[in-house]
Amino acid sequence: MLEFENPINDLQTMSLIKDVFLQINPRFSSIMVEGKKGGRKWKKVEVNVENHVHFPSICSPKGSPSPSENNSFLKSYISQIAMEPFPQGQPLWEIHIIKCPTSEAQGTLIFKLHHALRYGYSLVGALLSCLQRADDPSLPVTFSSVNNFSSVNRDDRNIGLRKVVSKCFWLLVDTVRDFGWSVLKSTCVEDDLSPIRCGSESFRPFSLSTITFLLDQIKEIKSRLRVVGNIIGKTILSLASCITHDFRL
Q: Would 2 disulfide with which of 109, 143, 171, 230, CB 3.0-4.6 Å?
């Protein structure tokens, strides 16, 4: 979901979708079909962008809705479209353009993407590649680096050979263990029932809740734990699922 400080321009948005968005991933213009041996594969098709882009009106039915009122309507709308399956016979993505102002933005762009399109972390990077810097549109979007933990990086250079070897050894052990567990989970061990896996293939209603982390906070966690950003995202999702399970939010 992208939030804009200024109202969204329809012509510019549609042009960006056709000329940039569709080009960053060939699966955005492909559908899944069954192959000769029963497996599924991707097939290139012509994309009618109008079938994938929606302009819902989520504003409050009152005469002059306030941005705070539109917040609840936006959350309800996101919960609604998350429950709806993708139409058959067309690429597995949708874009919903919300023009009603909220307390956070003048316009909102919602991407509904099937997880089969691409690995989530790289998909976010691909979407960010569509954006341009306000000060110089010829340059890609970049984020400021955090220098608060440069001393930590300097300390890392002074780690002895023994610690480096030990760290690499345990990293290898963890990798083999995680890989083996993944193989077991995908072959003979089923996942436990949880708020994410309920044991039923049918969609269940849910309520949308949000939590905001500043990019600098994510980088701070990354520097302190010395892990990649994807691990941080998985940890946050795990904590969120635990809260949902314990408190039934």
A: 109
CB 95 within 8 A of CB 127: no
| DSSP per-residue string spanning 15-84 | HHHHHTGGGS-GGGGEEEEE-TTS-EEEEE----GGGTEE----S-SSSS--HHHHHHHHHHHHHHHHHS
Its pTM stands at: 0.62
- List, for residues 29-71, the tens digit of each pLDDT value: 999 888 777 788 889 999 999 999 999 877 655 555 677 788 8
Based on the number of CB atoms within 10 Å of its own CB, is 113 exposed (0-12), middle (13-18) or buried (19 or more)?
buried
- Using an 8 Å Cβ cutoff, are 17 and 95 in contact? yes
Q: List, for residues 187-240, the tens digit of each pLDDT value.
A: 777 766 665 555 555 556 666 666 677 777 777 777 777 665 555 555 555 555
Report which of 115, 114, 50, 106 is spatially closest to residue 74, judged by C-alpha positions.
Answer: 106
Q: What are phi and psi of 177, to 5 degrees?
A: -65, -45
Q: Which residue has the tokens 């905001």?
A: 212
Q: What's the CA angle centered on 124, arms 120 and 130, to 5 degrees?
A: 145
Contact 204, 77 (CB under 8 A): no
Taking the C-alpha atoms of residue 132 and residue 140, their distance in angstroms, rounded to an integer, is: 5
